[in-house]
Amino acid sequence: MISTLRDSLRQDAGIAEFASESIVIIDLEGSIRYWNPAAERLFGWPGLAVGGAPVADISAAPEDEVRAWSQLLQEGVWEGQIRRLTRDGEVRVVEARRRLRHDEAGIPCDVVEYAHLAQGANGEEIPDRSAPDVAMAASWEIDLTSAAEILDRIRSQSRTSGGDDRGDLCRRLLEAARIVDVNERTARLVGGNRGRELMKGQSVASFWPVASRAILAELIVQAFLDSEGKRFHRWLASDGILREPLVTIWRAGADRPGHLFITVNGTADDDRSYLFLRASEARYRKLVHYMPVALWQVDASHMGKIYADLRSRGVTDFGKYLDDHPELVGLAASSVPVTDVNRSAIELMGGKDAQDLIGPAGYLFTESPECLRRVMIGRFSGDRNYSELMKLRTLDGRVLDVRFSVTYPEPLVELDTTIFSLEDMTERLQMETQLRQIQADFSHAARIATLGELTSSIAHEVNQPLAAIMTNAETSLRWLARAEPDIGKVRQLTARIAASARRADNIVQRIRSMAIKQSPDPVTLELNEVVRESLLFVQNEIEQRGIRVTTTYSRDLPTVVGDRIQLQQVIVNLIINAVHAVEGLDETEREILVVTGVEGGSATFTLKDNGPGIAPEHLGRIFDGFFTTKPQGMGIGLAICQSIVTAHGGAVSASNRTGGGAQFRVTLPRARSLT
Amino acid sequence: MPTIAIVDDDEAVREALGDLLMVSGLACQCFESAPAFLTALRSRRFDCLVTDIRMPEMTGIELIEKLHEEHAQLPVVVLSSVLDDATRTKALALGASAWLGKPVTDEHLLDAIATAMENSDPGTAR
C-alpha cells in the first residue's frame, strides 16, 4: 500500500516538476507529501522544508482550512481561496482546487491541490480577506408558479384557524415546487448519481431530505407570503451530513416572480466517518451502476403517505379500493418519479443516458398496467417484495418479456427508496417455446411410432365395421331385387349400415387425433376418462392376447390440466409395454391392473403387470432416451412419457412389485382453480 | 339346404353375414367365439365354416388347427382383416380353402363358399 503510494507520488512528481501551477499532495492526515517547484516559487518554502509537515502549520486561517478540509472529504472536491503563510511570514491569497484521490479499491488515499495567485479585476494580487460564505453547503433557486393554487389555499387557511389537511397541502407544495438551479455542492449532497443538470426542472420533493420537508414547506409559505423580501431562518436537526444546518430562504427580486432562493449553511458532521461512508458509498454506487441487472430507484414516498392515510381511514381491501378508485393507479404512474437508474437499465430500455429514464415511472407499465396495480397492492399489504413476468415497451419501441421485481422500503425506516429490477426474459422465453416445440415434435414422432405398432390392430378395428357395412348394403340390394322387395328388411339393414359407419368414424377420429401434429392444448381433464379412452386404443392388443385387465377407477380424483392426446399417449405407451411384458406368460396368467387414485392432492395412474419385472440394473435408466431392452425398440417410448408428464408438472416412476412384475406410476398435479 | 357356420366375435359382422347367406338361400348359424362353435359341432354337422382370425379366447388359426386334427372334411373359408402373410399361408396349409380379406363383396364370399363346398367330399362332410 505504502509502496504503491510512493510509486504514484514519484509518477505524479515526474509530471508536476515542470508545471507552472503550484501542485501540492497532502495525505489524509493533513501532512504535505509533495511540493512542486512552482509551489516553492509561490510560497517561498522549499519542498524539503515543508515535506512531512502538517499543511495547517503554514495556514494563515487554520479555521477556514478545517472547514475546507471537511467539505473536501465529504464531496471529493473543493474549490476556493486559501490564505497561506509564505516563508517571509506574509499572507498569500491563492485560488486553489483540491481533489480527493482514491486507490483502485475506491478507498481515499490522498489530496491533490492545485493553486495559483488570486488576481483582482486589474490583475493585482487580492489582499487578505475572509470568506464569510465558506461554510455554505447548498443553494437552491426554486420556482413556485405552478404551486400558486396550493399557496392560495394555505394562505386562506392561515387566515382562519388552519385545517386538518395542512400537512397534505405542504406535501403538495413541495411536489409542485420546481428546481430552477442548484449549486454543484447541492447536486453532490442530495443529487445522487444524477448531477446538477438532471435536477433542473424536477420537483423539490424528489431531492430535499425527508426529515426536514415539513420545515421547508413552512419556510416557503412564510417567505412567499412576506411582501418585503425578508430572510427567514430555521435551524434543522443534524442529519448525518451537516452539523446543525441553517436554512435561509427569501423571495427573488421582481425580475423573477414566483422564485425563491434557499441556502443551507453548516459544517460537516464528522468528516472521518463521512469520509469512509463516502468511500463505501462510492464502491456501492459503482457496484450498482455496473450490475448486470437493470435497476430503477423510485421515490414512492408520496404514495406511501397516501397508503398510510387510507389505512388510517380503515381501508383494508386495497384491491377493491383500487377497483372503486382506478385513478389512483394513474396517479402512481404519473407521480412516482424514477430518481436514478443504472447502466443496465439504460441498455435494457434502449436509452442514451440516465436522463432518458428519469421522470414519472409510468412508462415502465404502459404494456402491463395491471402489473402496476399489483405492485401497489403489494406495497399496501406491507409485502417486502413482489415479482411477476410482464411486457415492457422500450424507448426504441421494442416489446420485451421481462421479470419485474420490486423491493419495497422497510416499513419502519421508510427510506423512501423503492428499487425496481427488470430482467429481460425474452430470450429465455423464446428458448422455452422452442424446447416445448421440440418436445411436441418428439411426442408426435413417438405417437406415430406407437400407431405403427398398432397398425394391424387399427386395420382390424376399421375393417370390422367396413365389412359389416359392405355386406349389409349388398344384402339390402338382394332384398330389393326380389320380385317382392322386403322394405322392412332393407330398413333394418340400412339402420345397421348407419350404426357401423358411425363406429368406423369414431375409430378414425380417435386415430387421427393421435396422428395429427398439433400444439399441446392444455384443458381441464378427468384422468379416469383419459384412461378409458386410452384403453380403447389397445383393446384389441389386449383381447388378442387374452390378457385379463382389471380397472379400478377412483371416484374422488381431482381434475388435472393437460393435453388430452399427450396424456393418452403416455397411458397407451405404458399399457403397450405391459402387454409386451406379459406376452411371455401362459395365456391364462397374463394380467394387467389399471388403478387411478389420489395421493397428496395429486391424481395418480398406476399400471401393474405380472410380467418378469424390470432388471434392477435397468431401473435407474429406464426413462433415459434410447435406452431399450427390446430388439426392435427405439427406446424413446418411456423417455417421451417422462418428458410429457414432466411438462405437465407431474412425475412418472417405475418399480418392481414385491410379488413379481413391474409397476409404473404417473402423478399429475391437481388442476388449480381457474377462477 | 346347406348350413353354413359363421364364427366372428364382432356382432355387426356376424349379423350382416347371416342376413346375406339367408337372402342367398343358405341356412346359417352364427357363433361369437371358436369354443362356442366347437361345442355346437359336437352335436350337429355344418356344410361350411366362415371364420374370422383375430378373436379373443381362441384365434381362427387355432380353430383351423383343431379342425384339421379332428374334422379335416369341413370346408373352411377365412374372412379376416389380418394382412400378415405368414398367418395366411399357415391357414391355407392347414386346409382352409379360401382366404378373403375384410371387407368382402357378396359375390366373392358366396363364390368362395360354393367352391369350398364343391371341392370337399360330400360323402365325408358331417
From TrEMBL, chain A:
What reaction gets catalysed by this protein?
ATP + protein L-histidine = ADP + protein N-phospho-L-histidine
Q: State the UniProt keywords alphabetically.
A: ATP-binding, Kinase, Nucleotide-binding, Phosphoprotein, Transferase, Two-component regulatory system
Question: Which residue ranges does the record assign to the Histidine kinase domain?
Answer: 457-672
Give a Pfam family name. HisKA
| GO molecular function per UniProt | ATP binding; phosphorelay sensor kinase activity
Listed PROSITE patterns: HIS_KIN (PS50109), PAS (PS50112)
Instruction: Give the EC number(s) listed in the UniProt record.
Output: 2.7.13.3
Sorted alphabetically, which PANTHER family does this protein's record hold? PEROXIDE STRESS-ACTIVATED HISTIDINE KINASE MAK3, SENSOR HISTIDINE KINASE
- What protein is this chain from? histidine kinase
Species of origin reads Sphingopyxis flava
UniProtKB/TrEMBL annotation, chain B:
Matching entries from SUPFAM superfamilies are given as: CheY-like (SSF52172)
Task: Offer one example of a GO biological process linked to this entry.
Answer: phosphorelay signal transduction system
Gene3D superfamilies, per the entry: 3.40.50.2300
Keyword Phosphoprotein among UniProt keywords: yes
Report which superkingdom the organism of origin falls in.
Bacteria
Listed A to Z, the keywords are: Phosphoprotein
Looking at the record, the residues that make up the Response regulatory domain are 3-117
Give the signal peptide as a residue range, or say none if absent.
none
InterPro entries associated with the record: Bact_response_regulator, CheY-like_superfamily, Sig_transdc_resp-reg_receiver
Residue(s) carrying 4-aspartylphosphate: D52
Q: Which Pfam families match?
A: Response_reg (PF00072)
Keyword Phosphoprotein belongs to the record: yes
The record's listing under PANTHER family reads:
CHEMOTAXIS TWO-COMPONENT RESPONSE REGULATOR, STRESS RESPONSE REGULATOR PROTEIN 1
| Name of the molecule in the record | Response regulator receiver domain-containing protein
Annotated source species: Sphingopyxis flava
